[in-house]
Design brief:
The protein is mostly beta strands and 72 residues long. The chain has one domain: Rubrerythrin, domain 2. Helices cover 7% and strands 21% of the residues. A three-stranded antiparallel sheet has the order 2-1-3, with no helix packed on it. The chain binds zinc ion (ZN). The site of zinc ion has 8 residues, from loops.
Length: 72
Amino acid sequence: MPIYEFKCKDCGEVFEELILGNNEEDIVCHKCRSKEVEKLMSTVAFKCEGSFRGSKGSVCASCKGGNCSSCG
Ligand SMILES: [Zn+2]
């Protein structure tokens, strides 16, 4: 499934969103509802969600990488 990670530019919240079609412009922060979000190119993040979550969404604690290509 096309799950992407987004980061809110306002509060720094990192969250995942299932993208269906072209609804990227409708994505809002899950925490503060801001539309100032940027897409993080980490579509495989959900594979190692547990360790990925606790590290500000940038580096996986399991594989020490940003894309988890060798993780999970
Ligand atoms: Zn936010």
